[in-house]
TrEMBL record:
This is Multiple sugar transport system substrate-binding protein. Residues 1-21 form the signal peptide. Belongs to the bacterial solute-binding protein 1 family. The keyword Transmembrane does not apply. It comes from the Bacteria. PANTHER family: ABC TRANSPORTER PERIPLASMIC-BINDING PROTEIN YCJN-RELATED, ARABINOSE-BINDING PROTEIN-RELATED. Keywords: Signal, Sugar transport, Transport. Pfam families: SBP_bac_1 (PF01547).
Length: 429
């Protein structure tokens, strides 16, 4: 497949998108609600393992030498990213300008006045998937612009399933365990782990817990905002994860792995089914020797107890720090990074899911990522983790309860009862 050189494409996009705002390079500080000031800014994000973010920023910098963007990389783990962002905000530091936020952080950051409201009349959200736009809003106001989306997918080894006589991926938990037993009966599969989802005591565990609970018909908070985890549905979701480890379906080592550890395990060829985000697709298909499963896997909707499960809505949005300088430059940079052509180029390079709805029907993208139409449907149907102002406390409580149950420290019934009590004091008024 022939591609346009990325840096050249990005530079051209930057010129086209921001010709009206080249600025004079003056560095000024604006009041929280004002988008004024032009000059150097920073983009604060998790680690860029693809290298493509730097190429995108290079395109902007080539077109805006007086308004350069410098990337500040945060740790891999979302919990650590959030803590560093909060530390910067609570000190009212202007070191961070454009923030890459997990979609569930908007309410917390906006409620604490750590973000600058974005002007809806200057950012076109009409072309985006509606589910992604909601993640950037708080009380009807836009505080973050969706740049990429996510929904959990089931990665599965097509070569091993085929040898076991299985033509289709599982749609239920029981089908997944049955397929695993058949693969493990093969000489090629006796040392293969059956299933992995993030269950270490990180944000990934909150995602896995939410998908298990939601797939079983449960919720953490009901429609009125009150906790509702002490239910048979939530117990069924917790039991799925607990029994996966207890019965040897999921390796106990999963309790210490983060998302990148899980990715490496899948790419080593020692894992049959892996719940993971779309970003893994490009990395697992790399032909540079880093992946032993290149060309040997496919993706499908995650399974549930009675059919396809409820994927968790993930992704990242770009926001502007309330304490930043050069917010006019920051707004133009966000427009540049979230433009449809830019999102397509990034998806082709990294397999990240775009937020522009039309890109899921783009022939070039579908040729490379055949699962895109299914992913679009999954995103539209995906359920969010709890959207609450005290998100940090809520996710910590969920992680603690599920981790203790998975590790055998606390019986599931007691874990859910305790979690119900903790969440009662954290519900958003």
């Amino acid at each position: 497949m022939r591609r346009t050189p990325l840096v050249g494409l990005f530079a051209g996009l930057a010129l086209a998108l921001t010709a009206c705002g080249s600025g004079d390079g003056g560095s000024t500080t604006a009041a929280d609600g004002e988008l004024t000031g032009r000059g150097p800014i920073t983009l604060v994000s998790g680690k860029d393992r693809s290298g493509n973010m730097q190429k995108m920023v290079a395109g902007w910098n080539a077109a805006h030498p007086k308004e350069p963007v410098r990337i500040i990389e945060l740790p891999d783990e979302p919990n650590d990213q959030r803590q560093q962002l909060i530390q910067n905000a609570t000190t009212k530091s202007d070191a961070y300008t454009v923030l890459s936020l997990d979609v569930v952080w908007t309410a917390e950051f906006a409620a604490n006045r750590w973000l600058t409201e974005l002007p809806k009349d200057k950012l076109d959200t009409s072309k985006l998937l509606p589910a992604t736009v909601k993640t950037g809003e708080y009380r009807g106001r836009l505080f973050a612009m969706p740049v990429n989306s996510d929904a959990g997918l089931l990665y599965y080894r097509t070569d091993l399933l085929k040898k076991a006589g299985i033509d289709e991926p599982p749609t239920t938990w029981a089908q997944m365990w049955e397929a695993c037993d058949k693969v493990r009966a093969l000489p090629e599969g006796e040392d293969v782990d059956c299933y992995l989802t993030e269950v270490g005591k990180t944000e990934g565990l909150t995602v896995s817990a939410a998908e298990a609970v939601n797939s079983a018909g449960g919720v953490f908070f009901d429609a009125s905002g009150q906790p509702a985890v002490n239910t048979p549905q939530a117990r069924a979701g917790m039991d799925f994860l607990v029994n996966a480890i207890k019965d040897g379906r999921m390796p106990r080592a999963a309790l210490t792995l983060d998302g990148e550890g899980g990715r490496r395990h899948f790419q080593s060829g020692k894992l049959l089914f892996h719940r993971q985000w779309p970003y893994q697709y490009e990395l697992a298909n790399a032909d540079d020797g880093s992946s032993k499963v290149a060309g040997k896997f496919a993706v499908a909707p995650i399974p549930g107890p009675n059919g396809p499960g409820a994927a968790n809505l993930g992704g990242h949005n770009y926001a502007i720090s309330a304490f930043a300088k050069n917010k006019a430059t920051a707004l133009d940079f966000i427009k540049y990074m979230t433009d449809p052509a830019q999102q397509k180029a990034d998806s082709l390079a990294t397999s990240k899911a775009p937020t522009v709805a039309a890109l899921y029907d783009d022939p070039e993208l579908i040729e490379k990522y055949p699962y895109l139409p299914a992913l679009k449907e999954a995103i539209q149907k995906a359920q969010s983790r709890p959207v609450v102002v005290r998100y940090g406390d809520v996710t910590a409580a969920i992680q603690s309860a599920f981790y203790d149950a998975l590790g055998g420290k606390t019986p599931p019934d007691r874990a859910l009862t305790d979690l119900q009590s903790k969440l009662a004091g954290l519900a958003t008024p």
